[in-house]
Amino acid sequence: MLASKFHLNTLKEAPAEAEIISHQLMTRAGMIRKHAGGIYTYMPLALKTLRKVENIVREEMNRAGAIELLMPVVQPAELWMESGRWVQYGAELLRIKDRHQRDFVLQPTSEEVVTDIARNEIHSWRQLPVNFYHIQTKFRDERRPRFGLMRGREFTMKDAYSFDRDEASAQASYDAMYDAYVKIFSRLGLTFRAVAADTGSIGGDRSHEFQVIADTGEDLIVYNPDSQYAANIELADAPCLLASRAAPTEALREVATPGASKCEIVAEQLNVSLEKTVKAVVFMTTPKEGAGQLWLLMVRGDHEVNEVKIGKLPAFKEGYRMATEEEIMEYFGSKPGFLGPVKPIGQVHLLADRTVANMADFICGANREDYHYAGVNWGRDLPEPEVADLRNVVEGDPATDGPGRLAIQRGIEVGHVFFLGDKYSEKLKATFLNEQGKPEPLQMGCYGIGISRIMAAAIEQNHDAKGIIWPLAMAPFEVVICPIGLHKSEAVQQQAQQLYDTLRQDGIDVILDDRDVRPGVMFSEWELIGVPIRITIGDRGLKDGIVELQSRSWPEGQKVPVAEMLTRIK
Ligand code: ATP
Ligand code: MG
Ligand code: MG
Ligand code: MG
After folding, report:
1. What DSSP letter does each residue of 359-418 carry, written as one string?
2. Among 73, 150, 278, 367, which has the highest number of CB atoms less than 10 A from its own CB?
3. Which residues are close to ligand 3, an ion, with C-beta < 5 A?
């Protein structure tokens, strides 16, 4: 590519609304241009990177045996009504009408359509297992689209869906996807961690997120440095409990959400995950005395710790304080189904081994059937917790036999694998005939990767004061040739052209900057754009048969004989 024939347009300043570095740098580098909240054009530079990410994902999906197809962006509402998500999905689902007033959705994900395909295409156990995927535009009407491509409304996702005859085979499909994800994120050159996760609106049981580690990440991850254990702390849907001295249920509700009908609100929070087993609930205050904040930590699962949730109260109501161990025992201990015991960990108290449904009963004093969807997003409107506060609590006091020594990091969710079982196949009646000729529901899994989000995540992890430092695998160009005085020097022109031709023949993605710009301007532009390797060619070096090789991650350039340049680059 010749720079004069490409479209480059870098900016000195980032827009004021760009809060995080990837948004700032992608805008300044001319990679994205905004049209509305969360809706962007991928400019030519960004599209090159997007395609490279897509190709790596595609290669690894194909290698893992998944089959590519392309499902529609606009999907009929009927399928979403069949699955129940026409109602459940909430405001994130963009609903549209055609000229005949028929309802459609712009797809946020494709479980419904792919299950529709499966029920029509798959009849026999002989056709299984099968895994269909596509790389397609998604639309989610995010409440707060922000951070550029990190949380767009329109974005690009790879989503795959596996169909199996039984749970063991479905687990094998899940594991194959998990392994493919490890390969994908390794090839992309990202530092990441796979963590146990909640299943959100998709539902189901087993689930892992792939998180790119970055301080600006929206997710909090807890992990045990001594073991494989890692989990997402889900902030959004955490229920909140408070035990207070002799507090009647009414008072508890009042404290947890002042002025609101607590029963319904807590129930909405718990509804998300009523079936989960909670290993422990921890009540704790922040270390700041009288700060009036409360954390709830739930640890669930079959191993030591499986999932951790943290919720936060806006403030302690006047007259309330942290409950003591005895008070918690006294309050909850007499309740039927209470599994106790309470273990103190510093300022923290722990309720062991209970289900979320039990907990809901404790708080609401009602049967699960009575819980109503309150339509209140309590949790979501609260400020984010201070990581330092969490760290004090979670990492503190390793001497106890509480949740264990956990460390906290921030992460960006770039991939997610779910085990769905028959959640969709039951609803949409997608069955196959087993070896005995009996119909059985297909066992499903679904697997997403945020292709466009990966670009932003990579920048969060790889940048410096000058700009982006692309990992080679996803750089828009691998090499840029910067000739000095191209239009004045025959020698420079010849050498630049020769290097350019040879690199291209070798399959290297190279751009020759043949524009007539000052060296300083040219260098800082390419540093901002983040091309990993730069070759500078000037008359002065050429006299000695030397050009300059500069990696975006080295502090200084190196003088290299022209003849050696190619071997150095390869
Ligand atoms: P988040 O928790 O960030 O809202 P999610 O859990 O809703 O993401 P999934 O349904 O798991 O997302 O979708 C699969 C992948 O799609 C995510 O892991 C993420 O990388 C990507 N993704 C989801 N929402 C967005 C978005 N608004 N913009 C860009 N990428 C997204
Ligand atoms: Mg989401
Ligand atoms: Mg998520
Ligand atoms: Mg997810």
Report:
1. HHHHHH-S-GGG-------TTTTSPPPPHHHHHHHHHS-TTSSSS-S-EEEEEEEEEEEE
2. 150
3. 413
